[in-house]
Amino acid sequence: MRLCMISLDAAAQPDLEKLMGMPHLKKLRQQGLYCNNVSTIYPTITYPIHVSLITGCFPSRHGIGHNQPFQPDTEKEMRRWFWEMGDIKVKTLHQAAREKGLNVASILWPVTGKAKCIRRNFPEVLPLPGENAALKMIRYASPLWLLKMEALHGKKRKSIRQPHLDDYAALLCEKLYASRRPPDVLTVHLVDLDAMRHWHGVESDAAHAAMERLDGRVGRIIAAVEKAGLLSDTLFCIVSDHGQKDAPQGILLDQMLKNACGARAQTLGMGAYIFGDDLKRAQAIMEENREAWGIDTILDDAALRRLNAPEDVKLAVHARDGFCFIDREEETLGEHGFSLDCPQARTLLLLSGPGIDPGMMESARLVDIAPTLAHLIGVSLPQAQGTLIQDPHIHKSNA
After folding, report:
1. Which of 156-160, 194-198, 242-246, 350-354 has the lowest mean pLDDT?
2. pLDDT at residue 186 is higher than 60
3. What pTM, to 2 d.p., does this model score?
4. Strands 364-365 and 245-246, sheet pairing
């Protein structure tokens, strides 16, 4: 059995009725097993969640606790991200599949740069100011395949911004399935909706148009699988990571803490990690300024351990509704990084294909997705903290 895993970044429970009413996703839902109540992980940001999706682990074990390493004195535009798979501390679904001899491909999936286990890889890697985007991608991607795709199809990509990048991602998926050796395992990360919500707001016209485009890209990928004659042998797994909330009030928390006590804040959007030599003092100062600084909840070490937060994070905060934490004065619109209590922290799982009977699941955990997929395609993730999803609609078939 083949696996095609597609992540719809920034889609969450409040969006799912609309998304699941669109033609291609609606058809998958009718044919497959659907859950619109998947509990995501802390923190509710893209890179840690996408690593959990391919490891079945929480950040406390897989080691990716943020999109970026903590770089408090580096300008925002110059901060590096967790781009390389080597930063992950446990085995991934990509690695397990390759160890079994499966042909693995990945498009725009976070934290997959320089992954030897991925035969054809177009990872999510961002050029920093002064860097050449093409040369950087060659260093992190599968260079020969990337150069071939660029030579044949690069002119069809209008830019490396959204929605053009997701359009190119869908094109690469079509070419993968049309190749002489289609992938046994393909992971795809579609970012259009996330970008539009950050730039224009959660319920903006641009965000709703992005949902329509996402459904169209899912349809293109399904059509490519069908054209290759692989539809009956392919398990489709549609997932999401987090939603977004409008948060127009930006708070310079890092600057305020630095001035008050020397502590530093690493923003999560509607949350932040707090670092420093005297966290008790930092906590007391935040308690005193809770209202003025837009703070809703202060998370101490015990609370963070219950959330399976990164081991080096001992203090954190959540923002009040409408507020977010920023590093400099700038406009803020759609944000995430909120608490797991928010409806936007309930995400999507849709399975369709061999081994899956049509039905509805009341709830699921995001960390259980990778172990379940591994089981269905006949590979193992021994370090996973998640477990197999126990549902009568799921049964191993053709693995």
Report:
1. 156-160
2. yes
3. 0.97
4. unpaired
Exposed / middle / buried, residue 246 (Cβ in 10 Å: 0-12, 13-18, 19+): middle
Q: In angstroms, rounded to a whole number, what is the distance separating the alpha carbons of residues 375 and 56?
A: 12
Taking the C-alpha atoms of residue 297 and residue 295, their distance in angstroms, rounded to an integer, is: 6
> What pLDDT does residue 396 have?
73
Q: Pick the closest to residue 318 from 393, 229, 247, 259 (CA basis).
A: 247
Whole-Å CA distances, 71 to 79, 128, 169, 273, 363:
7, 14, 30, 12, 37
Phi/psi at 124 (5° precision): -80, 105
* pLDDT over 90, % of the chain: 97
Q: Give CA angle at 284 (281, 287), nearest 5°.
A: 150
Percent of the chain, pLDDT > 70?
Answer: 99
Q: State the Cα–Cα distance between residues 182 and 228, nearest whole angstrom.
A: 8
**The pLDDT of residue 298 is above 50:** yes
Rounded CA-CA distance 358/352 in Å is 8
